[in-house]
Amino acid sequence: MKVKFSKFERTAGLFVIIAASGLFFFTVAVAVKQGWFSARLHFATTFTQGEGLHPGTMVQISGLRAGTVDSVYLNDDNRISVKLTVSNEFSRQIRQDSHARVIRPFIIGDKVVEITVGSKSADMLAENSAIEGEDSMDIMDMLGGGKLGPYLHTIDSLLKNLQTVAEAFSDPKRSKAIIGMFDEILPTLLDVRELSHQMTRRKHLGKSMENLATLTTEVNKMLPIMMEFSAHLPELGNTTSKTMEQLSVLTTEINKFLPIMAQIAPQLPEASQKSVEALKEAVIVLRAMQKSFLLRGAVQDVKEEESMKRDPASK
């Protein structure tokens, strides 16, 4: 059975076909623009804050759409791990020194992950590698409750402290005490000014600086002598150490000899007295021998020889 379509039905069918074709081509164009059919590379990065990040967040390189975020999760060290996909055509710009950061292209709007272009001297980053993440902050982040709340709390505390200070100064007694303090400081400042004037009027300060320069010069002259003396200090220390060791040995030996001296000491006065008496007896014997006939002449000759040795001019 042959089905016949009316003119209206044929027109409607043609419109549906055209619309379906347009939708198909539009979908293909969007897919191509989004890079759904192009080769992709996978990378990873980490941030300390994940505000504004979610699967599907756009990835940019030099302001151009280069890929999307695949997943966002919190890892064990409380950092935000981000898995992202980048089109193969941008893979040459991702190198070892590239960085990833979360930015907002405009004052308002969604955030994007911006990957910086690496230097040509650095090596290309391999697929599934980690890109170093950098934290950033914009105006909207600063105005957010998470950032602005602590600042407002600090300002509130500051205002309370200022209120306390204002209430303290509102007391007339404290105000008068502060005025009295300034009245006491003023004469001190005048004395300091007068002292500085006296120091500079007759160039006392200049003379003091000249004397200080002269003293510094003399000290610089003495420095080589002090350095030379300090160079001999180790040798002097060694000599002193050896001397102390020898004194220690000598002291030890004297301590050994002390008991013997203690035993002899009581007999020393008697021995000395006997020695003196023996010398006296010897002198008496010698004088007696000199008076004898045989030694008298010889003694006289010896005395004359001794006198001649003492006084050669008497010859």
Please give a structural write-up:
The chain has 315 residues and is α/β, with parallel strands linked by helices. Among the domains are: 1-37; 38-136, Elongation Factor Tu (Ef-tu), domain 3, CATH 2.40.30. Helix content is 60%, strand content 14%. The chain has seven helices and seven strands, in the order H-E-E-E-E-E-E-E-H-H-H-H-H-H. A seven-stranded mixed beta barrel has the order 1-4-3-2-6-5-7. The N and C termini lie far apart (191 Å). 8% of the residues are buried.
Quickly list its features.
single chain; 315 residues; alpha/beta; Elongation Factor Tu (Ef-tu), domain 3; 7-stranded mixed beta barrel; 7 helices; 7 strands; 60% helix
Topology:
Blueprint: H1 7-34, E1 40-47, E2 58-61, E3 64-74, E4 80-87, E5 99-103, E6 112-115, E7 130-134, H2 139-143, H3 145-169, H4 172-201, H5 204-264, H6 268-290, H7 293-310
